[in-house]
Structure prediction request, 282 residues.
Amino acid sequence: MKTTVNSATLHHEILGVRGPWVALSPGGRRPMSALRALAQRIAEGGYRVLIHDRRNCGASDVLLGGDLAEHEVWAADLHALLQQLGALNEGSLFVGGSSSGCRMSLAFALRYPQVVRGLLLWRVTGGGFAAQRLAREYYGQYIAAAETGGMAAVCAMPHFAELIRANPANRERLMNADATAVIDAMRRWSAGFIAEAELPVIGATEQQLRSITAPACVIPGNDNTHPKAVGERLAQLLPKAALHVLFAEHQDVDVVPPESWAVKEVEMAAVLLAFLDGQRGG
Prediction:
C-alpha cells in the first residue's frame, strides 16, 4: 500500500485485522521487510501492526531536507500516516522500534503523548562512539560524495542506489535536488548527532525522558553503537519502564549484525507480547 503524507509517498503494510494498533520501525535505514517476521508474530498475538518504509528508506520517496532532525521528520510522517489510516485515538497506540526506529519512537512519544499507550524500545543508541559513527554513516559519506561529484555521486552510493532500484522515481528526485541544500541539511543532521553524544540517549535529554509517562518495554543492545548500559539507563529514566535483557554480554564491535538478533526473535516477540498484553489488560 502507498499513502502520501507531508509531501512524501510512503509504502506500508498492515498485519492483523483487529486489536490495538502497534507501529514498528526497523533500525538504520533498513526497509520495513526487516521487521516483517517480528511484526507477524505480534499480529498473531491479537494486534494490528503497521510497518512502513520511512522517507529515505526502502521503496518510499527520497526527500532530503528540513529543519527537524531526521528521526523527528519520521515521527511526524508516522503520525500523519496513522491519521490517514484512522488508527489514532487518545491513548490507543503502541509505537516502537530498533535503533533509529527507537529514536523515532521516543520523538513520537514526546511530540504526541496523548495518543501513545506504550513504547517498545530496543537496541537503544547513545554515547560518543555511536554519535560519531552514525553521523559519518548517515551523513558524512554522502556530504563528501555530493561535494566531489554532485547528486550523481550520491545516486551511485550503495544505499541510494538501492532506493532507486526499489523506486526508480527516486533518481529524478535526487538528481533534481539542489546539492548545496542537501549538503546543508545533512550537515545539520550530522551536527545534531555530535551535539547529543553526552545525552543519556541520542535524541532526548534526561528531562525529556523523565517527562514520558507512557509505559515502556526496553530491550538494550549489545555493541558499541547500542551499548547495554545506554539501554539500562533509558529504563531507569523512563518513569514506567520494564527492562528486559536478551544479550547479557557486551560485544566490542561497531554493530552486531541483525542475524545475531534474529536468533532471539521468538524470545523477543514473547517479551513484547507479554508487555502489550499487560498494558491491554490494565
Notes: The chain has eleven helices and eight strands. The radius of gyration is 18 Å.
